[in-house]
Amino acid sequence: xxxxxxxxYGLMTAIAMVTGVVIGSGVFFKAEKxxxxxxxxLKLGILAWIAGxxxxxxxxxxxxxxxxxxxxxxxxxxxxxxxxxxxxxxFIGWFTSIIYYPCLTMALAWVTARYTCVLLFNDRADIxxxxxxxxxxxxxxxxxxxxxxxxxxAGKVQVSTTIIKLIPLFLMAIVGTIYGLTKGYTVENFTTxxxxxxxxxxxFTAICATAFAYDGWIVATTINAELKDAKKNLxxxxxxxxxxxxxxxxxxxxxxxxxxxxxxxMQGGETGARLAFEAVFGKIGGTAVFVFVVISxxxxxxGLTLACSRGMYALAAxxxxxxxxxxxxxxxxxxxAPSSATLGLLMCIVWLVFFYCSQFSSFGSxxxxxAFDPTELPIVTSYALYIPxxxxxxxxxxxxxxxxxxLAPAIAIxxxxxxxxxxxxxxxxxxxxxxxIFAVVMAFGMIFSKEKKALx
Length: 456
Fold this sequence. Notes:
The protein has helices at about 10-20, 25-35, 40-65, 75-85, 85-120, 130-150, 150-185, 185-190, 200-215, 230-255, 260-270, 270-310, 310-315, 325, 340-360, 375-395, 400-425, 430-450. By secondary structure, the protein is mostly helical. Helix 2 runs antiparallel to helix 9 (about 200-215). The termini are close together.
């Protein structure tokens, strides 16, 4: 086995990693939460989408500046190492390997299973039951199998599902808006507030919810070492991909408001999106389009699996972490790191069990502050970890102009800080429970950081 990966992905795969991982589940899953958080205030919800999108764009643009200069093994870890230091890069790599990527990948498997159950059982779907969790586990294993056995096919799946997932979004954005204007739903939803809420806290909660919907763009940096002409293609993918996501999300959110009233959408819960699709396209047409929603979610899962499989490899390639010689091995036939991928799958299963026990089972009530939402808090943690990287850009990117060296990272830092404040207001006591688990995981990282073994 070798310890380096070949360059096999092009610009389209990189763009598909940005748009394909970001677009897919959060826009369907979190649209309902944002609407409920704002009390059915459509304009406040759109403001939250815009604010969350601008924060994502600011961070993506700042990282695109670094991507144009630094090309090693794994983008985010590379940037941390070059700007902040080797030790900080190690802990970012540990966090993404054990918490961040596994949590997101697990969540996407559950969301894909959730909409599969809604598709098959409609309002009888038990999205908190054992069946849904079993289907989620199946999706996890299947996605990891594709990426581990044939990464080229996985890359093609990513590109194709990215195209497929745009179908329901654009259809609802265009047809839903026309339908809503004709039936009067669009005007009604823009002018009617279902429940009066406090604007400040509601906006913070909604923006925090967009973190999951917009997250995933950083995943594109994990294929840095496998991307052809990475210094040009990765910055393009980050910026253009992020802009495309913001536009698509807002258009879809407006189109969704044309299908049914905000009150019906909020009352429908997990079936709200399907009710809107069926109202616009009819029962058969709505079901057919909803199939694309499930495919869309799986495409996002596939992209996250691509990143999750490489988590521990990014550390092992630097001769860091537990058993670096084992996790740095790359299979010559598949050009994948099998040990790293296996650990990634194991961590996803661990977080899936935690997710079920803390949120959706009878155990949940006894978990107290530990019953946090793993679809949001790990994401906001990543924003907090970006801050030192952006801060050091002010001092170390000396060959860049004023806007790239000072303005871009400063705006990104402000956006990250805002997201952290919004999280504290939104999740309150659960932040403490999450931070305790975060501290324990990082403490284990300190233990393993001492173990060294030379690569051969």
